[in-house]
Protein backbone atom coordinates (compact mmCIF):
# COMPACT_ATOMS: atom_id res chain seq x y z
CA UNK A 1 0.00 0.00 0.00
CA UNK A 2 1.27 3.49 -0.65
CA UNK A 3 2.17 5.66 2.34
CA UNK A 4 -0.25 8.38 1.26
CA UNK A 5 -3.14 5.89 0.98
CA UNK A 6 -2.33 4.44 4.39
CA UNK A 7 -2.30 7.92 5.95
CA UNK A 8 -5.69 8.72 4.36
CA UNK A 9 -7.18 5.43 5.55
CA UNK A 10 -5.93 5.89 9.12
CA UNK A 11 -7.29 9.45 9.19
CA UNK A 12 -10.64 8.18 7.90
CA UNK A 13 -10.89 5.40 10.48
CA UNK A 14 -9.37 7.30 13.41
CA UNK A 15 -10.10 11.02 12.95
CA UNK A 16 -9.07 11.84 16.54
CA UNK A 17 -5.66 10.20 16.26
CA UNK A 18 -3.09 12.87 17.05
CA UNK A 19 0.49 12.03 15.99
CA UNK A 20 1.78 14.71 18.38
CA UNK A 21 0.70 12.48 21.25
CA UNK A 22 3.38 10.07 19.99
CA UNK A 23 6.05 12.71 19.44
CA UNK A 24 5.54 13.32 15.71
CA UNK A 25 4.02 16.25 13.83
CA UNK A 26 2.70 14.18 10.93
CA UNK A 27 1.10 10.77 10.67
CA UNK A 28 3.49 9.74 7.87
CA UNK A 29 6.45 10.34 10.19
CA UNK A 30 4.77 8.29 12.92
CA UNK A 31 4.27 5.40 10.48
CA UNK A 32 7.93 5.58 9.44
CA UNK A 33 8.91 5.49 13.14
CA UNK A 34 6.95 2.26 13.79
CA UNK A 35 9.57 -0.08 12.33
CA UNK A 36 8.25 -2.98 14.42
CA UNK A 37 4.92 -2.75 12.57
CA UNK A 38 5.73 -1.33 9.11
CA UNK A 39 8.44 -1.55 6.49
CA UNK A 40 8.66 1.68 4.48
CA UNK A 41 10.53 1.68 1.13
CA UNK A 42 10.81 3.89 -1.93
CA UNK A 43 9.13 2.34 -4.97
CA UNK A 44 11.47 1.26 -7.78
CA UNK A 45 9.23 2.79 -10.42
CA UNK A 46 8.95 6.25 -8.92
CA UNK A 47 11.24 7.89 -6.36
CA UNK A 48 8.35 10.00 -5.03
CA UNK A 49 6.17 6.93 -4.37
CA UNK A 50 6.60 5.22 -0.99
CA UNK A 51 5.40 1.67 -0.30
CA UNK A 52 4.39 0.48 3.18
CA UNK A 53 4.11 -3.18 4.13
CA UNK A 54 3.37 -4.89 7.42
CA UNK A 55 6.25 -6.60 9.16
CA UNK A 56 5.53 -10.33 9.30
CA UNK A 57 4.37 -11.71 12.63
CA UNK A 58 7.16 -14.30 12.63
CA UNK A 59 9.83 -11.62 12.12
CA UNK A 60 8.36 -9.45 14.84
CA UNK A 61 8.10 -12.42 17.23
CA UNK A 62 11.78 -13.30 16.71
CA UNK A 63 12.74 -9.65 17.23
CA UNK A 64 10.65 -9.58 20.40
CA UNK A 65 12.16 -12.74 21.85
CA UNK A 66 15.68 -11.53 21.12
CA UNK A 67 15.05 -8.19 22.78
CA UNK A 68 12.58 -9.01 25.57
CA UNK A 69 15.02 -7.90 28.27
CA UNK A 70 15.75 -4.60 26.48
CA UNK A 71 12.04 -3.97 25.93
CA UNK A 72 11.33 -4.70 29.58
CA UNK A 73 13.99 -2.20 30.66
CA UNK A 74 12.77 0.35 28.11
CA UNK A 75 9.16 -0.14 29.25
CA UNK A 76 10.14 0.42 32.88
CA UNK A 77 11.99 3.62 31.97
CA UNK A 78 9.10 4.75 29.79
CA UNK A 79 6.56 4.06 32.56
CA UNK A 80 8.61 6.04 35.07
CA UNK A 81 8.90 8.94 32.62
CA UNK A 82 5.15 8.83 31.91
CA UNK A 83 4.38 8.84 35.65
CA UNK A 84 6.68 11.81 36.12
CA UNK A 85 4.99 13.68 33.25
CA UNK A 86 1.53 12.80 34.53
CA UNK A 87 2.48 13.97 38.03
CA UNK A 88 3.78 17.26 36.61
CA UNK A 89 0.59 17.73 34.56
CA UNK A 90 -1.69 17.05 37.54
CA UNK A 91 0.28 19.46 39.72
CA UNK A 92 0.16 22.13 36.99
CA UNK A 93 -3.63 21.74 36.60
CA UNK A 94 -4.26 21.98 40.36
CA UNK A 95 -1.94 24.99 40.85
CA UNK A 96 -3.50 26.78 37.88
CA UNK A 97 -7.01 26.09 39.18
CA UNK A 98 -6.11 27.42 42.63
CA UNK A 99 -4.60 30.59 41.15
CA UNK A 100 -7.44 31.28 38.70
CA UNK A 101 -10.32 33.59 39.65
CA UNK A 102 -13.06 31.54 41.29
CA UNK A 103 -16.77 32.18 41.67
CA UNK A 104 -18.30 30.08 44.44
CA UNK A 105 -15.67 27.38 43.97
CA UNK A 106 -15.94 27.27 40.17
CA UNK A 107 -13.43 28.49 37.59
CA UNK A 108 -14.36 29.25 33.99
CA UNK A 109 -12.53 26.98 31.53
CA UNK A 110 -11.09 29.97 29.67
CA UNK A 111 -9.70 31.46 32.87
CA UNK A 112 -8.13 28.11 33.77
CA UNK A 113 -6.57 27.84 30.31
CA UNK A 114 -5.15 31.36 30.62
CA UNK A 115 -3.70 30.58 34.04
CA UNK A 116 -2.09 27.38 32.76
CA UNK A 117 -0.49 29.38 29.92
CA UNK A 118 0.84 31.92 32.42
CA UNK A 119 2.42 29.17 34.48
CA UNK A 120 3.71 27.19 31.50
CA UNK A 121 3.66 29.16 28.22
CA UNK A 122 4.52 26.11 26.09
CA UNK A 123 1.56 24.11 27.44
CA UNK A 124 -0.62 22.29 24.91
CA UNK A 125 -3.16 19.53 25.61
CA UNK A 126 -1.86 17.85 22.44
CA UNK A 127 1.42 17.15 24.22
CA UNK A 128 -0.56 14.83 26.51
CA UNK A 129 -2.65 13.24 23.75
CA UNK A 130 -5.77 15.44 23.94
CA UNK A 131 -7.17 17.80 21.34
CA UNK A 132 -8.61 20.26 23.85
CA UNK A 133 -8.25 21.27 27.48
CA UNK A 134 -11.83 20.08 28.06
CA UNK A 135 -11.05 16.48 27.10
CA UNK A 136 -7.82 16.55 29.11
CA UNK A 137 -9.75 17.63 32.22
CA UNK A 138 -12.49 15.06 31.57
CA UNK A 139 -9.75 12.42 31.61
CA UNK A 140 -8.86 13.62 35.12
CA UNK A 141 -12.32 13.07 36.58
CA UNK A 142 -10.72 12.17 39.90
CA UNK A 143 -9.49 15.79 40.18
CA UNK A 144 -12.12 17.93 38.50
CA UNK A 145 -15.85 18.28 37.96
CA UNK A 146 -16.86 19.96 34.72
CA UNK A 147 -20.18 21.77 34.41
CA UNK A 148 -21.33 22.77 30.94
CA UNK A 149 -22.90 26.24 31.10
CA UNK A 150 -23.72 26.29 27.38
CA UNK A 151 -22.31 24.53 24.28
CA UNK A 152 -18.52 24.79 24.50
CA UNK A 153 -18.61 26.78 27.77
CA UNK A 154 -17.54 24.98 30.93
CA UNK A 155 -16.93 25.74 34.59
CA UNK A 156 -14.40 23.62 36.47
CA UNK A 157 -14.31 22.68 40.16
CA UNK A 158 -11.48 20.96 41.98
CA UNK A 159 -12.72 17.82 43.77
CA UNK A 160 -9.96 17.46 46.35
CA UNK A 161 -7.75 20.13 47.81
CA UNK A 162 -4.20 18.95 47.12
UniProtKB/TrEMBL annotation:
Polar residues compositional bias, start-end: 60-73
HTH OST-type domain residues: 1-56, 81-160
Pfam annotation, one family: OST-HTH
Matching InterPro entries: LOTUS-like (IPR041966), OST-HTH/LOTUS_dom (IPR025605)
Signal sequence region: none
Ranges annotated as biased composition (Basic and acidic residues): 74-83
Region named Disordered: 60-83
Protein name, UniProt field: HTH OST-type domain-containing protein
Organism name: Candidatus Chloroploca mongolica
